[in-house]
Amino acid sequence: MNQSIRIKNIGDLAKLAGVSTATVSRALSNSSLISIDTRNRIQTLAKQYEFQPSVVARNLRMQKTGAIGVVIHVGHERNQHVSDPFFMALLGHLADGLTERGFDLLLSRVIPENAEWLERMIDSGRCDGLIIIGQSDQSAVLDKVAATYHPLVVWGGYKPGQVHCSIGSDNFLGGKLAGQHLLDRGCRNLAFFGDPRAMEIGQRLEGFRAALEPMGLAHQLQVVPTHLTADGQDSEITAWLENGAKPDGIFAASDVMAMNALRALSEQGLIVPDQVRVVGYDDLPLAQQLVPRLTTIRQDIAAGAHYLIDCLIKRIGDQETASIVMKPELIVRMSS
């Protein structure tokens, strides 16, 4: 090997091999459009001269970026931040999984101002596909885009006729499990914390109501559409309690909401679970660190992240994938 020769790009390698740059590109990508002998000769030269083709250049030739966009959009809950414990848990699994599959993660937080927000992200060409975390109040936008843009998957709920591919737990069943558990614990004055405009939360409320129906309690269920403030507090819960509400059972649509409920109940001098029993949803790591430890509906976030990545990669390869609805599980701890 002539040590004075340096191969810096495909053009240099093409000159050395006496072929076109297109032929070199095909040889390095194992294309069947050139002969085996030519392919082997060029690959041997590349190895001899320690030439590594640019990943960026390869991606440009293949019209790929090597990046996956992960989008947190907060349509109905504008004060929710990326630091939310649920987002952090899911993002951790997504980052690990995408790295293992050879992709970079491009994270965006979006406050939708109009129906074109998602189309603008796609038109930017910055990534090979999108993972959207949550449907919020944007299900119609997701369906419209998914009808023509294939490499798109969404963490969230599922409903018949839905166009976009979603991964998530059976929210209706989860809500029903929470309701039946609180009934079994003797609760009769029940409340639901969460904004049902978001599909997942609305489905959890429907399941909760379904559990109360046989006991004739659904009509008196109190729904508190809670919203996080900039400091992470939940003013609606405090105001509701200060106005004289006396629940004996609360189902919070997320563990974060349940955490805020525990704090607000404590501030009002109400003891959990002696006076009020509380159930959350998600089973985040913090559920076992709260005092008392939180009873919750577990959805398998790690498995969900795996399904999101797997479905998206298949869709990038033009394969069809169906939505996946995972079975939730009641985890009983000290708060109920």
Automatic annotation (TrEMBL):
InterPro entries cross-referenced by the UniProt entry: HTH_LacI (IPR000843), LacI/GalR-like_sensor (IPR046335), Lambda_DNA-bd_dom_sf (IPR010982), Peripla_BP_I (IPR028082)
A single Pfam family, by name?
A: Peripla_BP_3
Q: Which residues form the HTH lacI-type domain?
A: 8-62
Keywords of the record, alphabetical order, are: DNA-binding, Transcription, Transcription regulation
Q: What is this protein called?
A: LacI family transcriptional regulator
Q: Which domain of life is it from?
A: Bacteria
Q: Which CDD domains does this one have? A: HTH_LacI (cd01392)
Kindly list the organism's lineage.
Answer: Bacteria, Pseudomonadati, Pseudomonadota, Alphaproteobacteria, Caulobacterales
